[in-house]
Automatic annotation (TrEMBL), chain A:
One of its GO terms (biological process) is electron transport coupled proton transport. GO terms for cellular component: plasma membrane. Keywords: Cell membrane, Copper, Electron transport, Heme, Iron, Membrane, Metal-binding, Respiratory chain, Transmembrane, Transmembrane helix, Transport. Gene3D superfamilies: Cytochrome c oxidase-like, subunit I domain. Pfam families: COX1. This is Cytochrome o ubiquinol oxidase subunit I. SUPFAM superfamilies: Cytochrome c oxidase subunit I-like. The lineage of its organism: Bacteria, Pseudomonadati, Pseudomonadota, Alphaproteobacteria, Sphingomonadales. Residues 39-561 form the Cytochrome oxidase subunit I profile domain. The chain crosses the membrane at residues 16-36, 57-74, 109-129, 141-162, 189-213, 225-246, 287-305, 317-336, 348-368, 380-403, 415-440, 452-474, 494-518, 597-619. It is found in: Cell membrane.
UniProtKB/TrEMBL annotation, chain B:
GO terms for molecular function: copper ion binding; cytochrome-c oxidase activity; oxidoreductase activity, acting on diphenols and related substances as donors, oxygen as acceptor. CDD domains: CuRO_UO_II. The chain crosses the membrane at residues 27-49, 70-90. The keyword Membrane applies. Residues 106-218 form the Cytochrome oxidase subunit II copper A binding domain. This is Ubiquinol oxidase subunit 2. Its main location: membrane. InterPro entries: CcO_II (IPR045187), CcO_II-like_C (IPR002429), Cupredoxin (IPR008972), CuRO_UO_II (IPR034227), Cyt_c_oxidase_su2_TM_dom (IPR011759), Cyt_c_oxidase_su2_TM_sf (IPR036257), Cyt_o_ubiquinol_oxidase_su2 (IPR006333). It comes from the Bacteria. Residues 1-98 form the Cytochrome oxidase subunit II transmembrane region profile domain. Keywords: Cell membrane, Electron transport, Membrane, Oxidoreductase, Respiratory chain, Signal, Transmembrane, Transmembrane helix, Transport. Coiled coil: none annotated.
UniProtKB/TrEMBL annotation, chain C:
GO terms for biological process: aerobic electron transport chain. GO terms for molecular function: cytochrome-c oxidase activity. It comes from Sphingomonas zeae. This is Cytochrome bo(3) ubiquinol oxidase subunit 3. Residues 24-200 form the Heme-copper oxidase subunit III family profile domain. It comes from the Bacteria. It is found in: Cell membrane. It holds the Pfam family COX3. GO terms for cellular component: plasma membrane. It is a multi-pass membrane protein. Keywords: Cell membrane, Membrane, Transmembrane, Transmembrane helix.
């Protein structure tokens, strides 16, 4: 009945995961209780769970990401504190099988369920607003993508209490991940979680590419797109091109494990090197999928907070597309040490370092964007500055690794670990936190508290430096990655500094949570409230909308006439001392909410779980469930609801009022 | 407690390692020339143009300049052009399969390396002996390693001697190194291979040629067991035993038999781990 | 940019009609699907030599069977296109008929593929036998699974056409289905040439 699932799957002998799971369980139970008691279920179901509004879905993605970042941080804390006390003959507090699960889970969660959803969430939220669209191209599909991602995250976290997680690293290299070397369910959890979430991501990529290419407002030509939309387009094109490779690779490994196929086995002609090639053919583009939208966020912020348009816009577009194309030609740099031969290594080394050209152009153009501007150091800008400085270092060490003879002694060392955290934390995480702070008022109508934001920033900066600078050194000293215990007692001081560093990161994260709490508490405060909808003196279309925008975004689709759509409208209004005329409002059709997404994801989760535990009847039943969810959706006859002219007018007039007032104030002060 | 031996790649003890280090430092130097000014420029520009600075001249219209674009593209391009040269030459000069040059007349010493779960087997085909977790090499003589794995992937790495290389089942990779001075150098697996990975370390003893010959002879004459398919079958079982062993003889062709999979790949965890562990003792 | 640029209606006149957007999105999806097939193709090519003493391509290919399969699929492309033409003219009965023909051809194709697979398995040429066979079964089987999904979709579409008639959204879905079916055909042509023709030559 339950396949291989029995009581032995619950790690009763391991207090740590049980306690953690207990804590999480309690928290979940408490919030469920609270929701029930306050009677919020109806609201949640109608406005969030079945919502197909891209802004809502974007927010959901970000919430998922924040939770998973915290989970990943907990893993990081365990690794750093464990290694600090596992030196010489000491074994620390995590036995190998446990430690190996932790770094695997950390990498998997951080990349797939921390960084990715955050990036996708911000794109979901901001892209349609910036291009002047009412929603993404396929709103229901969008909801399904989100819920599928959430399913993957759920599966990974279930592995904490039912069974185990993979011990094979964030990329389960064969043949270690084959059944003969990893007989448990750990790798299966990995495979199903990634497969389900990966399909979600692929669909979301399809959706956003279509949105950007096809749904732009009148006049919004490609070369008037805000930079964030360009980098999002690049990232989503990469998703469409790269994620199918991941799907195929994961499928092959799944067939090896479940049906005794021989794609990557040592036996019967299988080829483990093929796994390594295929996983990196996806894996390398993946890191640019993460960083490109972050580059876009920084572009928006540098320009907004310098009060200047982005410098060298066309160059930036060219550099973005350059990175997109070249990123598919470099995957071999992850295994220079496989002995492919000098010509091959050299060719891939050079191709890799060429990426530095596109990135360098961006870095220089950001500096020139500040040049001649008037730079305001609010928190989004602080994160961006920190990025600008740290990313140059991380990029430089990346290029160093692209030099094969250097990589021959640095591969898989702590130097490598330092490199990629340097670019991922300093680039992607700083980027998403900057983006979160930047768009938060747009989503909720109030800003985040600056004081706590600055505290969080400095703690994170200290933590980041203290963890990753010593790591570079340890790498040069010959310390390899993924060590459950460390043999050289001489490294102890460094390990202590790194452990202290991660505690600073914890403090920084606590400060971020504090910031959120304080800001929610004080949301009606003059200091935080964003009545105008334009808290940063923004330049792109979303700042022309009220905060939060109505669900249909634009009362009337904007007619764009320049590179900085909203800035020119704003200038004109200020010059003339009056708002543009009220448009002739029209009725709007908006997609209706539907539970299709969550139904599909629910059954997919069941499929994954049932496959992991070989509960075949449940697989069949859930498969039928997925099909029925689709059919149920397909059978709806009414897909849209009408928003009446009255409702549109009311919403727009309410949004115009504070702007008119602000303008009147300016006129009175004679500043027009 | 075992004494820890330095594994710093910045303290080379051989020509390959020295070349690795030089390329690393050169490439770093080239990049620092661009990176440090970039960082400084970023800080200065941001600070000077801060909103509160009355002395800064604002120029909102400065959004494009062909000259600036030219510079912006060509600086990194030039650096990469130069670096590309380093990469091309370095990759060829330091190709792991390329024999190390030594004084004429010195033949390289071949060592066959098999990564096991979780220890290292070294076979000396010329001497006809084998060791586990202990690598003894002569100083000043080119070393030609041939590597394979009994099971999952590993990377053979002695940082102070230079380049690492993967060991993979069903195939042989090649690595050429040279120890320039006597000493004891830490060696390890640099590629995660499962539970016992952290302990996949060995010490490389670089000794003068005479001492090496003496040692090899001693081993050959010792009363230690000899390594054949039977012993190998025991050895390849998963074990976290970190002991060093020597074998007075090694069956010729053992390595090739492993590479050709005439000796089947080792399995993973035994059904009942504790039973086999006991049996091995 | 202090000067306000003069407003100018540009070449981009705003979002196109919904069916164009849908078609574009579905094309993007198909590109992804084709890339996934390309990965399986790559896997097959890499593993072609990994026979572990087992049979090779020439030993397992039954060209007559495959020829009939190909014929079925090519014909079904035609019938599928005809269904599209009829749907455009709102002749729903004809649409249904051609859809039915498409589906039947698909079923025959599948039956032949199952026959091929079971022959192979009877002879011990199972996917577990060697890496080459794993690659073969995966590549061909993945196409087969796509055909199964296609038939399921087709059946659902026929039901919808019957119940809902030629509504705009039904038409949109029909045209997406047709794109899908044609894509399967193209993938099959690749499969047929690389796996079967090339395999039986070498
Ligand atoms: C997105 C990717 C990502 C991120 C962000 C991180 C962040 C961190 N990682 Fe990790 N890491 C990986 C991806 C990532 N890592 C990968 C892929 C591996 C390889 C795994 C493998 O070996 O297979 C790895 C491995 C890895 C190791 C193993 C090294 C080894 O092999 O021995 C270690 C050890 O210290 C480590 C540490 C850290 C630390 C200290 C952080 C810190 O920077 C964490 C700081 C905290 C944050 C950045 C989160 C901030 C929190 C929020 C923003 C939420 C705020 C909440 C609200 C506002 C409500 N990482
Ligand atoms: C967001 C993620 C991200 C980003 C942006 C990058 C960016 C780069 N990475 Fe990194 N990388 C990872 C994530 C990332 N990487 C991860 C996760 C791994 C390891 C995974 C694992 O093994 O588990 C990895 C591993 C990795 C390796 C493999 C090493 C090994 O396994 O031995 C290499 C080797 O070439 C490499 C190179 C580079 C290069 C050249 C860049 C370039 O894009 C950097 C370009 C930027 C700059 C150079 C700075 C700015 C430029 C200038 C100021 C101009 C002037 C400078 C010059 C001309 C040099 N990376
Ligand atoms: Cu085996 Cu590369
Ligand atoms: Cu890469």
């Amino acid at each position: 009945m339950l396949g291989r699932l029995d009581w032995s799957a619950i790690p009763l002998h391991e207090p740590l995961p049980l306690a953690a799971a207990g804590g999480v369980g309690l928290a979940v139970a408490a919030s469920l209780f609270w929701i029930t008691k306050r009677g919020h279920w109806g609201y949640l179901w109608r406005e969030w769970i079945t919502s197909v509004d891209h802004k809502r879905i974007g927010v959901l993605y970000c919430i998922l990401a924040l939770l998973m970042l915290i989970r990943g941080l907990v893993d990081a804390v365990m690794m750093r504190t464990h290694q600090a006390v596992a030196v010489g003959d000491a074994q620390g507090y995590l036995p190998p099988d446990h430690y190996d699960q932790i770094f695997s889970a950390h990498g998997t969660i951080m990349i797939f369920f921390g960084a990715m959803p955050f990036i996708v969430g911000l794109m979901n939220f901001a892209v349609p607003l910036q291009i002047g669209a009412r929603d993404v191209a396929f709103p229901t599909l969008n909801a399904a993508s989100f819920w599928l991602t959430a399913s993957g995250a759920l599966l990974v976290n279930v592995s904490l209490v039912i069974g185990e997680f993979a011990r094979t690293g964030w990329l389960p290299y064969a043949p270690l991940s084959e059944t003969s070397y990893s007989p448990g369910v750990g790798v299966d959890y990995y495979l199903w979680a990634i497969q389900i979430a990966g399909v979600g991501t692929l669909l979301s990529g399809v959706n956003l590419v279509t949105t950007i290419v096809k749904l732009r407002a009148p006049g919004m030509t490609m070369l008037r797109l805000p930079m964030f939309c360009w980098t999002s387009l690049g990232a989503n094109l990469l998703i469409v091109a790269a994620f199918p490779i991941l799907t195929a690779t994961v499928t092959m490994l799944t067939f090896d494990r479940y049906l005794g196929f021989h794609f990557f086995t040592n036996e019967a002609g299988g080829n483990p090197m093929m796994f390594v090639n295929m996983i990196w053919a996806w894996g390398h583009p993946e890191v640019y999928i993460l960083i490109l939208p972050a580059f876009g966020i920084f572009s928006e912020i540098f320009s907004t907070f310098s009060g200047k348009p982005l410098f060298g816009y066309r160059s930036m577009v060219a550099a973005t597309m350059f990175i997109v194309v070249v990123s598919f030609t470099v995957w071999l740099h992850h295994f220079f040490t496989m002995g492919a031969g000098a010509d091959v290594n050299a060719a891939f080394g050079i191709a890799t370092s060429i990426i530095a050209v596109g990135t360098g152009v961006k870095i220089f153009n950001w500096i020139f964007t500040m040049y001649g501007g008037s730079v305001r150091f609010e928190t989004p800008m602080l994160w961006s500055m920190a990025f600008l400085i740290t990313f140059v270092v991380g990029g430089m060490t990346g290029v160093l690794l692209a030099v094969p003879p250097a990589d021959f002694v640095l591969h898989n060392s702590m130097f490598l670990v330092a490199h990629f955290h340097n670019v991922i934390v300093g680039g992607v995480v700083f980027g998403v936190i900057a983006g979160y702070t930047y768009w938060f008022p747009k989503a909720f109508g109030f800003r985040l508290d600056e004081r706590w934001g600055k505290i969080a920033f400095w703690f994170h900066m200290i933590g980041f430096t203290a963890v990753f600078v010593p790591m570079y050194w340890l790498g040069l000293e010959g310390m390899t990655r993924r060590l459950q215990h460390v043999y050289d007692a001489g490294w102890t001081p460094f390990l202590y500094v790194m452990a202290a560093g991660v505690l600073a990161s914890v403090a920084g994260t606590a400060a971020l949570i504090m910031q959120l709490a304080v800001s929610i508490r004080d949301r009606r405060d003059e200091r935080l409230r964003d009545d105008l909808g334009d808290p940063w003196d923004g330049r792109t279309l979303e700042w022309g909308l009220p905060s939060p925008p109505p669900f249909f975004n634009f009362a009337q689709l904007p007619d764009v006439s320049g590179e900085e759509a909203y800035w020119s409208i704003k200038r004109k209004a200020i010059e003339q001392g009056e708002l543009p005329e009220e448009p002739d409002y029209d009725m709007i059709e908006m997609p209706r909410p539907t539970p299709t997404g969550i139904f599909v994801a629910f059954f997919s989760t069941l499929i994954g779980f049932a496959c992991i535990w070989h509960i075949w009847w449940l697989v069949m039943v859930s498969g039928a469930g997925v099909y029925l969810a689709f059919v149920g959706y397909a059978w709806r006859d009414v897909h849209e609801r009408d928003v009446s002219v009255d409702e549109v007018r009311r919403a727009d007039q309410a949004a115009r009022a504070p702007r008119a007032a602000a303008l009147a104030r300016l006129v009175k002060e004679g500043r027009t | 407690m075992r004494a820890a031996h330095s594994a710093s790649v910045l303290r080379p003890a051989g020509v390959v390692a020295a070349a690795n280090r030089d390329i690393l430092l050169n490439a770093l130097a080239v990049m620092i020339v661009v990176a440090v000014p970039t960082i400084i420029a970023a800080i200065i520009v941001a600070w000077w143009f801060r909103a509160g600075n009355a002395k800064a001249t604002r120029n909102e219209g400065f959004v494009y300049s062909g000259r600036v674009e030219l510079v912006v593209w060509s600086i990194p391009l030039l650096v990469i052009l130069f670096l590309g040269g380093i990469i091309w030459i370095g990759s060829h000069r330091l190709d792991p399969s390329r024999p190390v040059q030594a004084s004429p007349g010195i033949r390289p010493l071949t060592v066959e390396v098999v990564s096991l779960d979780w220890r290292w087997l070294f076979i000396y085909p010329e001497q006809g002996i084998a060791t586990v977790n202990r690598l003894v090499v002569p100083v000043g003589r080119p070393l030609r390693f041939r590597l394979t794995s009994a099971s999952v992937m590993n990377a053979f790495f002695v940082p102070r001697l230079g380049s690492m290389i993967y060991a993979m089942n069903g195939m042989a990779t090649e690595l050429n190194l040279l120890a320039a001075k006597p000493g004891r150098y830490a060696g390890m697996s640099a590629h995660y291979s499962g539970e016992g990975f952290s302990d996949m370390r060995f010490i490389t003893h670089a000794v003068p040629q005479r001492a090496f010959d003496l040692w090899a002879e001693q081993v050959a004459r010792s009363a230690t067991p000899s390594l054949g398919a039977g012993n190998y079958a025991i050895l390849r079982r998963q074990s976290r035993d970190r002991g060093e062993y020597v074998f007075r003889s090694a069956q010729p062709g053992l390595f090739d038999a492993i590479v050709a999979q005439r000796l089947a790949p080792a399995g993973g965890p035994p059904a009942v781990r504790s039973a086999t562990d006991a049996e091995e003792k | 940019m202090s000067a306000v640029p003069t407003p100018r209606r540009s070449e981009w006149a705003g979002p196109p009609a919904k069916d164009i957007v849908t078609a574009y999105g579905f094309w993007m999806f198909l590109i992804g699907d084709v890339i996934m097939f390309a990965s399986f193709f790559a896997g097959y090519a890499v593993l072609a030599g990994g026979r572990a003493g087992g049979p090779g391509p020439a030993d397992i290919i039954e060209l007559p069977n495959v020829a009939v399969q190909t014929l079925c699929l090519l014909t079904s492309t035609l019938t599928c296109a005809l269904a599209g033409v009829m749907a455009e003219r709102r002749r729903m009965a004809w649409t249904q008929l051609w859809l039915l023909a498409t589906g039947l051809l698909g079923v025959i194709f599948l039956a032949l593929e199952i026959r091929e697979f079971s022959h192979l398995i009877e002879r011990g040429a199972t996917p577990q036998r060697s890496a080459f066979l794993s690659g073969f079964f995966m590549l061909v089987g993945c196409h087969g699974v796509h055909v199964v999904a296609g038939i399921l979709w087709l059946g659902t579409m026929m039901a919808q056409v019957a119940v809902r008639g030629p509504k705009a959204y039904v038409q949109r879905r029909l045209s997406a289905f047709m794109l899908y079916w044609h894509a399967l055909d193209i993938v099959w042509v690749g499969l047929f040439s690389i796996v079967y023709i090339w395999g039986s030559i070498t």
